[in-house]
Amino acid sequence: MTNIDEITIDELADLPEGRGILYDIRDEISYSHGTIPKAENVPDIERMAAEGRLPKDKILILFCMHGAQSAIACEHLRELGYDARSLVGGYGAWLRKNFLTEDRSAEIEDSLRNRRKFKERLFSPFAKAVARYNLVEPGDKIAVCISGGKDSMLMAKLFQELQRHRKFHFELIFLVMDPGYNELNRLLIENNASALGVPITVFETSIFDAVYSVDKSPCYLCARMRRGYLYSKAKELGCNKIALGHHFDDVIETTLMGMLWSGQFQGMLPKLKSKNFPGMELIRPLYLVREDDIKSWRDYNGLHFIQCACRFTDTCSSCRTDGSPVSKRMETKLLIRRLKESNPQVEKNIFNSLSNVCLNTVLAYKKDGKVYSFLDEEI
C-alpha cells in the first residue's frame, strides 16, 4: 500500500472481499447526495471509535470529499489501536476514477418509461405539474438550466421524454452555466451529460471569483447573479422561459424556512414572470416530484452527480476547517424528517398550506414590498 496511513483507489479495488470496511465520514446530507458503493455513513466515527464500537480485526477505510478530514480521523483511530486508512483524494478521487464514458441514455430513458420503475414516480408528477400550472405552451423555447446535480439532470431527461410525447411544438436548449467550477465538477457535468444523451450548451462566467471575498450574504448574492446570467443567456439564445430543478422537497423546505428563520410565510411558486427581463418566465416542472424518488432513480441507474460546486461548500461540512454550521436548509430538512416520524402527512400538509391560507385569521400581507393590514379592513 501507499503507506500505513493511506490507501489509493486502485488499492481499494484490489483489497480482498471482507478485508476492509468503507466508511463515509461526511455529514448525512452530503452522503445522501452520493457516495462510494457499499460505504457506510458514520459522521461520528471518532466517538464510535472511542467507545469501542468499531471492529479491530478489519481495515477501516475512511473518506470525506477530498481526503482532508479523513486523514485526521484516521490518525485519531490509529492512536486507539484501529487499523485505519484514509482514502487518498476521497470521494472526489473515486468520482474521477469512475466517470461515465459510455452512452447510457437508452437504459436510463427506459427506466423513466417503465411504469413499475419510475414512470409513475417521476414522469407522471412532472407531466402533472406541467399541465396543472401551464408551464409549457405552444411555441415556447425553454432553457433547461443544468447545474450538474441530480435534480437538474433528471429534469433534462424528463423534458426530453415530454418532447417525445408532445401535443404541440416547443423547443429545448440544455443550458449549463459555469460560474467557476473546479476541474472535477466541470468534467463530471460534461461526462454525465454525454452519457445521458443530453446535448448541453455551456457558457462561462466568473461569479465565484466575484463573490468569493464577499463577507455578508455571499450565497444570496451568488444566487441572484447566477439567476441573472441564466436569464440573460437564455434571452440571447431566443428563449422565453428558463426551467430550474427545484422539487417538492425544496418547496416545503423553503416555506418552513421562511417561517422559522425569517418570520414570514413565503412559498416557492411553480412559475414566475421576470421583472428584470420582460417577456421571460421562470418555471419549476419538478414541483410535484419527491426528492427520495429522484435519489432512487439516481441509485438505480448507478449515477453520480455533483452536490454543491460552490467554493464555500464544495468540500462538504465534514471537510470544513472554519467551524461553519450546517446550513439552515439542512437543519430544516432534518427537522421535517423528524416530524415525519410521528406524522407521515407532514410534508403533504406543509405543501397544501400554500393553497389553504385562511385570510380571516391573517394579520397582514405583503405585496410588492408594501404591507397591508387586514385589521384595517371592515369585517
Task: Write a brief structural summary.
This protein has helices at 9-14, 28-32, 45-50, 68-79, 90-97, 105-113, 115-132, 150-164, 183-196, 207-211, 218-236, 248-261, 291-300, 328-342, 346-353; strands spanning 6-7, 20-24, 40-41, 59-63, 83-87, 141-145, 171-178, 200-204, 241-243, 271-273, 281-283, 364-367, 370-373. The chain has 379 residues and is of the alpha/beta class.
Describe the structure.
This protein is α/β, with parallel strands linked by helices. It folds into two domains: 6-97, Rhodanese-like domain (Oxidized Rhodanese, domain 1), CATH 3.40.250; 105-311, Rossmann fold (3-Layer(aba) Sandwich), CATH 3.40.50.620. It contains 15 helices and 13 strands. It has helices at 9-14, 28-32, 45-50, 68-79, 90-97, 105-113, 115-132, 150-164, 183-196, 207-211, 218-236, 248-261, 291-300, 328-342, 346-353, and strands at residues 6-7, 20-24, 40-41, 59-63, 83-87, 141-145, 171-178, 200-204, 241-243, 271-273, 281-283, 364-367, 370-373. It has a six-stranded mixed sheet, with helices on both faces. α12 crosses α14. It is globular and about 70 Å long. The model is unreliable at 314-325 (pLDDT under 50).
